[in-house]
Amino acid sequence: MSAVPVFVYHSVTDDPPTWSAPYTVTPRAFVEQLDRIADGGLTVVPLRRLVSAQHGGPPLPPRAAVLTFDDGYADFYWTVAPLLSGRELPATLYLTTGAIHPPGGSATGSLLPPARMLNWRQVSGLDAYGIEIGGHSRTHPQLDTLPGRRLYDEIVVCKRELEDAVGHVVDSFAYPHGYSSQAVRRKVQKAGWTSACAVGRAFSSPEDHPLRISRLMVGADTTQELFQAWVEGRGAPVAPVPERLRTKGWRAYRRVRAALGRPVAC
């Protein structure tokens, strides 16, 4: 089983809102991490290559890695994309469509607190440039606590909005907060998404489930030593990893709170 680090980033900036600071890395730290990936001999591949391998397709390079980014912060356009371009690195950008706004207009709304987000013109430009655009729901809820109709809106309508924006099929999804369930994954698959990323805090692998791809979250508290361990294939389990009883209990608790109108904040 080959450990594949699928790194998940959120914002890359020196000046994040207070609420997103734990999920943010500075541009300097991001450059250092890209250097570690290169110096460690990892080959960054598009997410679709990992998914193809998970379906029995061509094998990955011996030491592969994947870069993903969640939510759709404006700094991806101004900071991240130029750095990736300079190194010719592929990446997947998962968008919360309700947080993306038309140029000069307002977003339709999401559960994410205020932050500088991409606009639809920038999304189209990134897609044309070769960044894979993926879905991250419409409003960024805990999908495994939602009733059927709301789940449909978050999964199906998100896909429709993205495809209308970029003019082609979009088939990669990421679960907000990393939360999913068997029922959620069935709806994701039925909607036409062919892959979906969780978090899992584990390495992915060709044996990982393409609708529950494990990722390693990179944030403000990710030390150089931990990131280097990930580059070397150490410091985390390798998926597939059985769902823990604690995870099931946490889901049940969140569902009860949501049903009472007091959802757990994430």
TrEMBL record:
<dbReference type="Pfam" id="PF01522">
    <property type="entry name" value="Polysacc_deac_1"/>
</dbReference>
<dbReference type="GO" id="GO:0005576">
    <property type="term" value="C:extracellular region"/>
</dbReference>
<protein>
    <submittedName>
        <fullName>Polysaccharide deacetylase family protein</fullName>
    </submittedName>
</protein>
<dbReference type="InterPro" id="IPR051398">
    <property type="entry name" value="Polysacch_Deacetylase"/>
</dbReference>
<dbReference type="GO" id="GO:0005975">
    <property type="term" value="P:carbohydrate metabolic process"/>
</dbReference>
<feature type="domain" description="NodB homology">
    <location>
        <begin position="63"/>
        <end position="266"/>
    </location>
</feature>
<keyword id="KW-0732">Signal</keyword>
<dbReference type="InterPro" id="IPR011330">
    <property type="entry name" value="Glyco_hydro/deAcase_b/a-brl"/>
</dbReference>
<dbReference type="GO" id="GO:0016810">
    <property type="term" value="F:hydrolase activity, acting on carbon-nitrogen (but not peptide) bonds"/>
</dbReference>
<dbReference type="InterPro" id="IPR002509">
    <property type="entry name" value="NODB_dom"/>
</dbReference>
